[in-house]
Amino acid sequence: MKKGILISVSLSLVVGLWLGIDNTDVSALSCAEPREVTEELKISDAVFRGTLTSSNPEADMSKTHYEFQVSEWWKGEHTSSTVKLYSNGWESFEPGKEYIVFVDKSEKRLTPRLCGNTGLFSSVDVTALGEGILPEKLVQSSGNPRPDGLLQVFMEWIRDLLGKI
From CA 50, how far away is CA 46, in angstroms rounded? Predict the structure, then answer.
């Protein structure tokens, strides 16, 4: 009986050691190399360059959000000069710093893409993306303000017509 127990324990140890030894490198929760920025542009719902103006960290990560002042758009809401992003749990943004952000939209919420090129603007080569588009609100406030009333719109239209003659 003792001999049978001794053999069972020995066999269990040998099998356990044989199965338990693994020299392969494994990284849990790590990302593969990011795609090229042009590829990520294609699959993103929005892409912008902006400065983090505020954040609202919450205990419930799904409620944490970030506010960005957008200075350039490559894809997405070109009319907006601000963006509210919700956390995906993996980003690390610092207020006052400028980022390029590749965005996913799900359930009417914008989140930074996981495992992508989102990061400090100075560390991402965006030359392949070409020239971005300024948000319309910034363009309007920096130059010709858009007329608000119907009469003003009509007068601007007449000025434009007279200018073309």
Answer: 12
